[in-house]
Amino acid sequence: MAEPLITLKQVDVEFKEKTRSVHAVDHVDLTVERGDIYGIVGYSGAGKSTLVRTINLLQRPTSGTVSVLGQDMLKLDAAKLRQERRRIGMIFQHFNLMNSRTIADNVAFPLKGTKVTETTADGKKIWRKIKKSEINQKVSDLLELVGLADRATAYPNELSGGQKQRVGIARALASDPEILISDEATSALDPKTTSSILDLLAHLNQKLGLTIVLITHEMEAVKQICNKVAVMDEGRIIERGTLLQIFAQPHEQLTKDFIDTTIQIESAIAAVRKQPAVRDLQAPDQLVRLTYVGASTDQPLVATLFKTYNVTANILFGDIQILQGTPFGNLLVVLSGTQADLDRAFDYLQQSDVTVQHLSANQEGEQA
Ligand SMILES: Nc1ncnc2c1ncn2[C@@H]1O[C@H](COP(=O)(O)OP(=O)(O)OP(=O)(O)O)[C@@H](O)[C@H]1O
Predict the structure, then answer these.
(1) Ligand 1 pocket test: which of 23, 50, 54, 258 has the largest number of ligand atoms within 8 Å of its C-beta?
(2) What is residue 273's three-state secondary structure?
(3) Test site for ligand 1: of 14, 49, 231, most ligand atoms within 8 A of the Cβ
């Protein structure tokens, strides 16, 4: 059974300044369930950071309700809120490490002075201060977990960006949180390092059952590890769904634009328009983009178009990626046949859950 861990209802954040006010988050509803890796994608200024900071009340909403791990966050007193925040880890774009302390000290920092429970000989549960040896053990386990066991005595500025983020992750996990909020945690990293950090987050999600909220402006990151995604624009969530739903049937133009960044479709379209097959295109032949998620593959599709509908498909570009174990295909194809055959073929494609986008042979006169 899905268990909601984070429930935001009608969360609104307005920043009032002297001369203007900014509506950073506009009545957002959001539910994150246990085990989710929930991506929130949007351009800079969309309100992503402000939204996720309402989860641990680093940002108090102007109105709305925030329920996290069964607690109504807005009703907690300061002590309870501090306690609750320990169950919500956070990592940041710029790592926020203390440069004058070693890696081990950075990870140990949130543990200092914390209390642990112990069962006494007569069966009583008591709280006591954590021991130095327990902190050391925990730090060493965490560094092992993030792949930095051999760098405990190094200082942050001796590490690469990716390693620094691993320290950030270890530190965020020190209080055994159930939720991890990642605020553009890979935005300062190169693509290969980004990918390895995302793999680590996916591993932690599996191994520890960690629920992750990942905010990013890169759909590529969402594609790599998220099971759900929300698209944010001007303070609002304009579209949301499972990763496959969003990739299979994006409704909003912004969502489509974000998806297209993961397949570089614009440059592929520009390239195929230069090919003779497109340059010399004669009506009713057409250049189309076919998009599908699921079992369809180009082979039966192309074979069926020809065998059943007398339509030949000349594939000029193909990109098939695997999303959560499911193929996501994008093909740029010239379809040739009589107008009647093409019309029947388009009906068939629609019935097969293949999205057809008609493209003009040149840049001008793009059709929907
Ligand atoms: N403390 C603040 N005071 C005033 N305005 C703010 C404050 N924090 C954020 N804003 C404004 O709220 C809007 C949303 O900002 P936010 O940082 O949440 O967006 P974002 O999608 O996370 O973008 P980025 O990735 O650039 O941080 C922006 O217009 C920003 O200028």
Answers:
(1) 50
(2) helix
(3) 49
- Cα distance between residue 82 and residue 76, in whole Å: 9
Which tops the pLDDT comparison, 113 or 286? Answer: 286
Domains identified in the chain and CATH numbers: 4-87+177-261 (3.40.50.300), 265-359 (3.30.70.260)
pLDDT tens sequence across 57-107: 999 999 999 999 999 999 999 999 999 999 999 999 988 899 999 999 999
Q: 3-state class of 118 per DSSP?
A: strand
Q: Which two tokens stand for residue 61?
A: 């909403």
CA dist., res. 244 & res. 66, Å (int): 27
Q: Where does the pLDDT of residue 295 fall: very low under 50, low under 70, confident under 90, or very high at 90 and above?
A: low
- In this prediction the ipTM stands at 0.95
CA angle 88, 90, 96 (to 5 degrees): 145
For residue 325, give the DSSP letter.
Answer: T
Q: Of all protein residues, whose CA lies closest to atom 1 belonging to ligand 1?
A: 15
Give the up-direction half-sphere exposure of residue 224: CA atoms within 13 A in the CB hemisphere: 19
Residue carrying the six token digits 């614009």: 266
d(CA 227, CA 224): 9
Burial of 101 (0-12, 13-18, 19+ CB in 10 A): middle
pTM of the model: 0.88
- Say how far apart CA 295 and CA 292 lie, in whole Å: 8
Taking residue 118's Cβ as centre, other Cβ atoms within 10 Å add up to 10
CA-nearest of 57, 60, 63, 115 to 81 is: 57
- Measured CA to CA, the distance from residue 244 to residue 110 in angstroms comes to 37
116-168 residue pLDDT tens: 888 888 888 888 888 899 999 999 999 999 999 999 999 999 999 999 999 99
- The pair of structure tokens assigned to 161 is 């960006």
Are the beta carbons of 284 and 338 closer than 8 angstroms?
yes
- From atom 7 of ligand 1, which residue's Cα is the shortest distance away? 15
Amino acid, single-letter form, for residue 8: L
Measured distance CA(251)–CA(287) in Å, rounded? 22
